[in-house]
Write a structure and sequence with these properties.
The protein is an alpha/beta fold. The chain is built from 22 helices and 16 strands. The longest helix has 33 residues. It binds 4-O-methyl-alpha-D-glucopyranuronic acid (GCV). The site of 4-O-methyl-alpha-D-glucopyranuronic acid has 11 residues, from loops.
């Protein structure tokens, strides 16, 4: 399927007119890429922004009539990119670019006005007489309205009597990149970092603009450019110039940049003797640094901080607390309107404790003591982006401090870029979980969107899965996870089937049956992955440190809570971590109603069983099987499902683009191979404790445990 590059030559004059500084270099580089890559098969670069010709003649004619001219009430950088996108979309889908006109009687009008919804990012799309009017309180709202209109066209929806009003339920809708200044990405599986620090600020890679378009199209309005394991280098004068160049590119698309900062920067860069947050010299250093940053980037978003976690420096190195550290930075940045996003991913090893409880223990006590521009960023679960986790008890616990949710798009624990896992069902499961913080119905979604505790500022974050791979995410289907983050951050109550439907339709642009097959595969993929890797709530049984493949046998690591044994606790009696009153009692951190759902070994959903109980191997489950038989059957059924995925995907040959088809087919084969590995290694390992046979009708693994164990090295992950 031939296609043009994502960013066509006709964008250039518009964009360049607002960016005199780099217009020539930018123009030439784009022109060159257009000449080189004018046509090629669908390599996935265009993501969900494919504007291929609409095949249905009636639909096309209808759209063409509605979108032949556009009147722009007042322009600026953002309106200019919105209009450029409209032109690009109409040229591609309708074969004729929408015409800019000075006549207010145009078929489409873009206006900034006062809407009933006061959100600065709200938009309305309305048919008024014969005109479609896209309005926003700000130009960002108009931009989102334009992308919504384009999405409607991509979905083949009617533009007759259109009446849409929308605004995001969450203020900060962000990607966190774990990109390093040397070009590597921590837990990145799609190539190297897309930010070419060595070329910046002089050269603006066109990909930066396409990244901004993709994000804006799904409402993402913030990006943290660098790894939370932060190099202090990012806030040196040298790097700030580069960051400014990126901020300038992203600004027209409504995207602010943020940086992860190293808490020890005053020592590393400022040569101070300490980074103690209560030291006046340290405070002065950060204030001056904030002033320097805002002089360059007046709309800089703020700092993201990983402190006293996994060896990163922090206030506790000086006998201070997370509160002291966060508030000190918050004070430095507050005069500029900046934010401090302080991560709650902390778990100092306590031999008598439970890692599950660490973040709550560290942060709950400070609720209400953080400055107003501090947000506490919490991973969705209490451990670390496992395949399935119960929610972090901090959701529902922090009544006076805004808490945001961090999801992981990059598939650190979900099979990297070879396993197909559509993550939306997992995110939906988390967001729909009731915390009971304010009685029934206080779901995580309602905590996060601020409704439950009236948070003045709200945020949802995805650890990005993007890289320099041509298709951005390595696995073509992983693009859907990026798309999901944007859609859910706009509306955390959107369901995963709707998101899958949209994404599959606009990405594959195929017939209804094909879309349905893709959707089905997407929606099943996460539970399938759970089954062949972590059934019944067993967790943290993946390869040590690289987090790839099975290694439930890891018994020794630099810290006990980095082993698998710490979590699965398999012995001759049973398996699982007892977090009830009889065990670590971490369950006590939940509100009573949620606690009750998990506390009883007889009534807990099997999916969470081993998260909270040490279940006897021979205990009967509601499924009619013993714990051992249920576990084994899920491993086997999981593998069977991957076999089915391969078969079902194969039916799409000729229905989806050839390059994507082959790419996904190959990855599914690898996934199947690795699913067998997970299944057999896990079954044989746990069998050493259960001493029970593989139940009928499943065949015994044919490889020995030793052979399977050695596979970690075969896959070169050490
Ligand atoms: C960026 C996990 C990952 C680390 C990551 C850390 C975090 O432990 O394995 O690579 O570090 O989470 O979220 O800070």
């Amino acid at each position: 399927m031939p296609e043009n590059i994502i960013f066509p030559a006709h964008f250039l004059p518009i964009f360049a007119s607002f960016n005199h500084l780099r217009k020539m270099r930018f123009f030439l580089s784009l022109l060159l890429s257009f000449i080189c890559f004018g046509t090629y098969a669908d390599d996935g670069y265009r993501l969900w922004l494919k504007y291929d010709p609409i095949k249905n003649p009636a639909l096309k004619a209808g759209y063409s009539k509605k979108l032949n001219s556009v009147f722009i009430q007042k322009t600026n950088e953002t309106i200019a990119v919105a209009v450029a996108e409209l032109k690009y979309a109409t040229r591609g889908m309708l074969g004729k670019e929408i015409l800019e006109t000075k006549a207010p009687t145009s078929s489409l009008k873009l206006e900034i006005t006062k809407l009933a919804d006061i959100s600065l990012e709200a938009f309305e799309i309305k048919t008024i007489k014969t005109q479609i009017v896209i309005s926003g309180n700000t130009s960002n709202g108009v931009l989102y309205g334009v992308f919504e209109l384009i999405r409607k066209m991509q979905l083949g929806e009617s533009l007759e009597n259109i009446n849409v009003a929308s605004s995001p339920k969450i203020h900060l809708r962000m990607l966190n990149h774990w990109d390093n200044n040397n070009g590597t990405i921590e837990r990145g599986y799609a190539g190297m970092s897309m930010w070419k620090w060595y070329e910046l600020p002089e050269r603006i890679d066109p990909r930066y603009i396409d990244y901004a378009r993709a994000n804006a199209s799904i409402g993402i309005n913030g990006t943290v450019l660098n790894n939370v394991n932060a190099s202090a280098r990012f806030i040196t004068g040298e790097y700030l110039g580069k960051v400014k160049a990126l901020a300038d590119v992203y600004r027209p698309y409504g995207i602010k940049v943020y940086l992860s900062v190293n808490f020890a920067s005053p020592k590393i860069l400022g040569k101070l003797k300490t980074a103690d947050p209560l030291d006046p010299e340290v405070q002065k250093w950060w204030k001056e640094k904030a002033d320097e940053i805002y002089k360059l980037i007046p709309d800089f978003g703020g700092f993201l901080v990983k402190a006293n976690s996994e060896g990163e420096p922090g206030p506790m190195d000086f006998g201070r607390t997370h509160k002291d550290g966060a508030n000190m930075l918050a004070e430095a940045i507050a005069p500029h309107g900046g934010l401090v996003i302080w991560r709650a991913f902390v778990y100092n090893f306590d031999p008598k404790g439970d890692r599950f409880a660490a973040a709550y223990n560290e942060f709950k006590k400070f609720d209400g003591e953080f400055l107003p521009n501090v947000i506490i960023q919490v991973k969705n679960g209490p451990i670390d982006f496992q395949v399935r986790e119960p929610i972090s008890p901090l959701f529902g616990a922090m009544e006076k401090t805004p808490v945001s949710i961090e999801f992981q798009l990059t598939q650190e624990y979900l099979g990297w870029a070879t396993h197909w896992v559509y993550e939306a069902p997992m995110f939906e499961e988390v967001l729909k979980t009731d915390t009971y913080a304010k009685g029934k119905g206080s779901t995580v979604a309602k905590v996060i969107d601020g409704e439950a505790f009236k948070y003045p500022i709200t945020s949802m974050v995805g650890v990005a899965n993007t890289g320099s791979d041509r298709n951005w995410t390595g696995h073509p289907m992983a693009q859907a996870n990026w798309y999901t983050l944007g859609r859910l951050a706009w509306n955390p109550e959107m369901n995963s089937a709707t998101i899958a439907d949209e994404w599959a339709k606009i990405t594959f642009r195929s017939d209804a049956k094909t879309t349905e097959t893709i959707k089905k595969l997407m929606l099943e993929s996460r539970e399938i992955y759970v089954n062949y890797t972590n059934p019944l709530g067993v967790h943290h049984v993946m390869g040590e440190s690289h987090h790839f493949g099975p290694e439930p046998w890891v018994e020794k690591a630099p810290r006990p809570d980095w082993t698998a044994l710490y979590y699965h606790r398999a012995d001759s009696v049973g398996i699982g971590f007892d977090r009830t009153e009889k065990g670590s009692n971490s369950l006590a951190q939940y509100h009573p109603e949620l606690r009750a759902k998990y506390a009883d070994i007889k009534t807990i959903e099997p999916e969470y069983l081993l998260w909270f109980h040490h279940a006897p191997w021979n205990m009967q489950l509601a499924t009619g099987r013993s714990v051992w038989n249920e576990m084994v059957s899920r491993y086997y059924e999981g593998v069977k499902s991957v076999e089915k995925m391969n078969i079902e995907w194969a039916t799409l040959k000729g229905k989806v683009d050839e390059e994507t088809f082959e790419n996904v087919s190959a990855r599914l084969k690898t996934q199947l191979k690795e699913a067998y590995w997970w299944r057999d290694a896990s079954v044989l390992y746990f069998q050493k404790f259960s001493k029970m046979p593989v139940p009928a009708p499943y065949p015994k693994p044919t490889r020995t445990f030793e052979e399977l164990k050695a596979l970690v090295d075969v896959y070169h992950v050490r």
